[in-house]
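Work Package 4 report. The design task specified in the project plan requires that, given a folded chain encoded as structure tokens, an amino acid be chosen for each position. We show below one input record used in the internal validation round.
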């Protein structure tokens, strides 16, 4: 690890965390390409840059957390199933699947194909929910279940959440913003879980890498969130799906030739 790789990982995390393209897969792919060993320090570093991405949502949407109790309650309702499923399945899935590049590439490709098929047939209803505070609790709970699918490496958390919300009758902008907000407790919980295992795995000389990665991830995520909100005004997610499939196929050819 050096300052250049710290910056690269921060950019990758900031861009991919909130776009429907899987941050976990991109970070693992970046690690493979840059030949960075998955040490205890690197796990702590991943936590640091993840916290940077989380902070970007808090900065942009702090009013929703502090001033809109109805929104906070819907986030909590969606987080509950994610937390329960995560606690039950996180350890076995992490042991067998996390870091498995083959699984992640197939998830990218299959997920991209699913998004294309979904977008071709999807039609937004006139009665679609356009306010987060108006999401019924059962639908918020189901969105949390959709999000939990992302426990499988390569299955984008944001994509699973957004597609689930569209299926359940939310407007695109509404579910995208809800996905941002739901990321905060979800990612914080995952961060605390990992931090309990990898805290203290770095020395003072490595602290600069954590700080640089954190700051770069935070700044990049701010732009990624703004970009996605602008993009969905006139586009669906098929371009992201095509990117997922193309990336998976190219890497399969490159890595397994």
């Amino acid at each position: 690890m050096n300052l250049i790789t710290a910056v690269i990982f921060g950019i990758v995390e900031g861009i991919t965390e909130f776009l429907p393209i899987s941050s976990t897969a991109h970070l693992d792919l970046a690690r493979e390409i840059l030949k960075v060993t998955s040490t205890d320090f690197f796990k702590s570093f991943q936590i640091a840059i993840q916290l940077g991405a989380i902070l970007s949502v808090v900065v942009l949407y702090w009013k929703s957390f502090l001033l809109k109790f109805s929104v906070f309650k819907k986030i909590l309702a969606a987080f509950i199933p994610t937390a329960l499923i995560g606690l039950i399945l996180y350890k076995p899935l992490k042991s067998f699947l996390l870091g498995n590049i083959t699984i992640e590439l197939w998830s990218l490709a299959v997920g991209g194909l699913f998004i294309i098929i979904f977008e071709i047939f999807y039609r937004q209803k006139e009665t679609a929910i356009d306010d987060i505070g108006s999401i019924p609790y059962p639908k918020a709970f189901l969105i949390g279940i959709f999000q939990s699918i992302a426990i499988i490496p390569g299955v984008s958390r944001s994509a699973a959440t957004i597609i689930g919300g569209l299926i359940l009758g939310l407007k695109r902008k509404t579910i995208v913003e809800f996905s941002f907000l739901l990321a905060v407790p979800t990612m914080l919980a995952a961060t605390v879980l990992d931090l309990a295992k990898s805290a203290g795995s770095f020395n003072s000389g490595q602290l600069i890498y954590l700080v640089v990665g954190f700051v770069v991830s935070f700044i990049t995520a701010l732009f990624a969130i703004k970009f996605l909100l602008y993009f969905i005004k006139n586009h669906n997610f098929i371009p992201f799906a095509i990117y997922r499939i193309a990336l998976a196929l190219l890497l399969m050819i490159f890595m397994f030739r």
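The two ends are 28 Å apart (CA to CA). Validation will be extended to a larger panel in the next phase.
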